[in-house]
Amino acid sequence: MDKLNAMFECRKRLPYLGLLFIVLLFAGTRAHAFCAGTLIKEIKAIASNPEVIEAVKASNARQLTKAQVMELDEKWIKLNGRLPEAEQIKKSNVSTLLNTEMNKQSYFKEAILTGNQGETVAMNIVTSDYWQGDEEKFTAVFDTNLPSRKPDAHISRARWDDSTKAMIAQVSVPVYDGDIMVGTLTVGVDLKRVPHTNH
Fold it and tell me: Which residue of 42, 84, 180, 199 is 20 to 30 Å from 149, comparing CA positions?
């Protein structure tokens, strides 16, 4: 069993979310609880930014084949993201926007914006891979059904992240163009920096 674990319960409270998440972070014998409803609200606000939506739509309009996505993903992983395509994404206007948003809160660490195939559209730091489409942060929320049959937010189990030296939980939300889901936004959150209800 991990030394630190994140456990989540739900209770009705916020009308627009339908659910209020209570997160318990166990550190040794100490337990801290905080409401994740505010986190989700903040991340959804970023996902609804017109520049974010337009960037996702532009990526989807490229209509990359699965083979093209996987070819770039393989190169990306092999070169640890040190390739022109990653640099182009990192320097894009929408990646700059994500970086600005991440700097607004001390508990925000990483942002990954994807298109409808799970391909990386924007990022504030270079990701370990290009394709997120097989990962829970994408599959747990992305849905082509209208209305969506999946939750409007997903919080992963917290894990130790060597790059940030922190316990990170990934909070994922859909990106919508009107009523149509076009992509996802995932933000890595440093749980120890989030304000706790018992502080």
Answer: 42
- Give the SS3 label for residue 16: coil
- Out of 1.10.540.10, 3.30.450.20, 3.40.630.30, 3.40.630.10, the CATH code matching 49-193 is 3.30.450.20
Checking phi first, is residue 59 left (phi over 0); if not, alpha (psi -120 to 50) or beta?
alpha
pTM: 0.83
Q: Give the phi and the psi of residue 93 in degrees, each rounded to 5.
A: -60, -40
Which tens digit of pLDDT belongs to each residue from 51-73? Answer: 999 999 999 999 999 999 999 99
DSSP string, 119-137: BEEEESS--S-SB-TTSHH
